[in-house]
């Protein structure tokens, strides 16, 4: 009895550590059709962020997505977003991975999904945004010394094109409207870009629907249920 208690305590400690480090317990869960991944704070890529910042590390997210893809028990994934943006390459890489999952995926923007958080928000099969949540859309930027101005500009242009192509591929917004939002000078005092709040993101066809956690989970359950119905229909033929 004592051994079982010690094992349970050890397991709970391991799970608490996993939650602390990854934002979610060890994957895969048995008998859990829907998995949740949270992407919060600053997206950390090849360079470490300042220690006082809340970050999501891409080397943590990638193995979680791999485990989900390999787990036959998982039928759907909920991606919860509250991010200020961060490393462009890492954010786009995570977005592509989410978009390439064979599982049903739904994204939910809570608080905000800014900068490179925009393609993350559109990377799923369907997207929700809370009524008070915001999305900041602007061109990519960099700080510090620029060496080889024309070469750097060309790199930025290609990187921006990759982001624009991804967003227009994974949402219903057209390229013209996206570029207008991205280069607007009306809203951001020290920068170009636009801030969309809740339903504005839906009106621009960037996000599918205004909603919260209940709506996102229910939509995922409906997708899973429809898939099971289709499979049963195929088996009965």
Topology diagram in text:
Blueprint: H1 2-22, E1 34-44, E2 55-57, H2 58-70, E3 76-86, H3 88-100, E4 104-113, H4 117-122, E5 126-129, E6 134-137, H5 149-170, H6 175-182, E7 194-197, H7 199-203, E8 209-210, H8 213-236
Parallel strand pairs: 1-2, 1-3, 3-4, 4-5, 5-8
Antiparallel strand pairs: 6-7
Helix pairs in contact: 2-3
Quick overview of this protein structure:
The chain is built from 8 helices and 8 strands, in the order H-E-E-H-E-H-E-H-E-E-H-H-E-H-E-H. It is of the alpha/beta class.
Describe this protein's structure:
The protein has 8 helices and 8 strands. The chain is an alpha/beta fold and 237 residues long. It has one domain: 2-enoyl-CoA Hydratase, Chain A, domain 1. The strands form 2 sheets. Strands 2-1-3-4-5-8 form a 6-stranded parallel beta sheet, with helices on both faces. A two-stranded antiparallel ribbon has the order 6-7. Helix 2 packs parallel to helix 3. The longest helix has 24 residues, at 213-236. It starts with a helix and ends with a helix. Mean pLDDT is 84; it is low at 25-29.
């Amino acid at each position: 009895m004592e051994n079982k208690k010690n094992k349970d305590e050890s397991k709970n400690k391991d799970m608490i550590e996993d939650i602390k480090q990854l934002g979610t317990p060890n994957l895969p869960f048995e008998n859990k059709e829907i998995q949740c991944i949270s992407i919060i704070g600053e997206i950390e890529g090849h360079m470490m962020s300042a220690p006082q910042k809340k970050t999501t590390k891409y080397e943590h997210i990638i193995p979680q997505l791999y485990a989900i893809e390999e787990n036959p028990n998982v039928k759907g994934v909920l991606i919860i977003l509250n991010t200020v943006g961060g490393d462009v390459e890492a954010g786009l890489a995570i977005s592509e991975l989410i978009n390439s999952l064979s599982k049903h995926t739904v994204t939910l923007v809570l608080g905000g999904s800014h900068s490179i958080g925009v393609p993350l928000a559109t990377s799923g099969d369907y997207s929700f945004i809370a009524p008070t949540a915001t999305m900041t859309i602007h061109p990519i930027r960099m700080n510090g010394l620029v060496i080889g101005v024309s070469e750097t500009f060309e790199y930025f242009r290609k990187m921006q094109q990759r982001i624009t192509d991804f967003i227009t591929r994974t949402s219903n917004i057209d390229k013209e409207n996206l570029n207008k939002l991205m280069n607007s000078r009306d809203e951001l005092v020290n920068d170009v870009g636009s801030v969309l709040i809740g339903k504005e993101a839906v009106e621009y066809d960037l996000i599918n629907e205004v909603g919260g956690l209940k709506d996102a989970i229910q939509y995922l359950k409906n997708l899973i249920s429809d898939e099971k119905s289709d499979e049963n229909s195929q088996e009965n033929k």
